[in-house]
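Minutes, project check-in
Item: structure for the 146-residue chain
Input as provided by the requester:
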Amino acid sequence: MKKQITMQYQGETFTVDAERKGDVIEISRGGKTYTVHLLPEKNPEPVSRPSAQTQAPRTPVVPVTPAAQAPPAGAAAGAIVAPMTGLVKEVLVVKGDQVTNGQLVVMMEAMKMDIEVIAAHDGSVVEVFVQSNTNISQGQPLISIG
């Protein structure tokens, strides 16, 4: 169920539409939708939980470090490549966007795990080579940051 909420981000207050689907929250504002993946708490408080048989399975989220996604020899400078073969679930940037080191730029799925692909350095998105819901191979360029 969508809900309108007021939130603060980097000192600025926004009113957005938000919808939670399990461990995913979709936030919409001004025609653009942002997807937030909730991670499990490191030291959760003990609470009464349903049995494993009634509880929905969680999709593990694996962040990919910049070193693990280094482009192969001969790839364009600034290219961020697929760390493994899988499915592009969501491309979170468009050509011309400014990104910062460590920013989530592409969400993939491989072996029933969500794979977070992050920017390896600050810069501007020069090119986006993939689209959501497409299969890709390990080492295939995803985006280029200049």
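Outcome recorded: Residues 65-74 have pLDDT under 50 and may be disordered.
No further action items on this chain.
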